[in-house]
Amino acid sequence: MAISTNISKKNIFYYLKGDKMIWALTVLLAIFSFIPVYSSSSNLAYLYGDGGTFGYLLKHFVHLFLGFVMLFFVHKIPYHYFKAFSILLMPVIVVLLVYTLAQGETMGGANASRWIKIPFLGAGFQTSNVASVVLMIYVARYLSKIYQKEITFKETLLPLWVPVGIVLALILPANFSTTAIIFSMVIVLVFLGGYPLKYIGIILLAGLIALSLFVLAAKAFPDVFLNRVDTWISRVENFTKEGDSKEDYQIERAKIAIANGGFAGEGIGKSIQRNFLPQSSSDFIFAIIIEEMGLIGGFGVMLAYLLILFRLVIISTKANTIFGKLLVIGVGLPIIFQALINMAVAVELFPVTGQTLPLISSGGTSIWMTCIALGIVQSVSAKREEIREKEESENAESSIENPLDILSETL
To answer: Domains of the chain: which residue ranges?
Structure first.
């Protein structure tokens, strides 16, 4: 009977490795996401569809299902393989970003090319999200290679900063917020990876100069850059003072939704502002959550992301290699950072950025890349579990005394 019980337990948990709390929180956020997505998609249904919201719910389910399939298979890959993957995928990412910049599609009201259409599926994916994950793995790989070594800035320029600069330069014209997030996360990662502070200062100065030159070029040739700089400036101006732009309208509606929500909320499915917020199911979904579920729902979502952050720190600390430690931070921290930015925008603590709420907002690429990143984190955690189980097994075997030794001591 005991043997059959062990086998049944093995059947349930054998295929899911890694941190159990991250698995639980990921599933919890995914299940929870159906409520605000279904509720807030009514606006899209009436604007672009026949008024029915079931299709949007089904689409969200498909995105989540594919995301969890990716998460499962990625977490089964030994994490040291991602070193090679990042080197092989970097040229592919550059080609995709160039193509997106030249021939990409515009979706969701954006006035810049950010998506590549998949012909046979009729869907698209945002290449900057893919580039972000690949780039962070690449940076983690290089930092683990030079960890605790005496290096000069010149030695790191070509293998580290040139690829980073190329990727950021190709994302910047269409998506400043994503560029800023990726750059910030790279800086955090190189700092944690022991990269010299004086060299980080040089990179920050170089980044500021590059951004200034881009702004001047965009001002000089507005037709070439589709007036993207004016969009960034208007968003910052609307954040610092009152205005009548689309971004200001969305913020005002989000604030009304949050005010209506109060402590306990208006009730699930009873949001009013979902009918007025253009991005109610993606960029401003946090405001809809608070309107319907109140501060209880808002703080609950925030707590879930903070718990994931806590587990990321634990997994990184316990990883058995430097690459594993940096990899967890590199791919995991941007998820939490993006979530905090999305929530900060909804409560007007940050200018409008267009960043979605990971695992909750509707959208395919964001969900898929978040699941892939979490799969990588779980791969690192699974390796640590494997090592611990091996050590426990060896200790158990060594603790078993040989019966002949006991007999000889007795005699």
So the answer is: 17-382
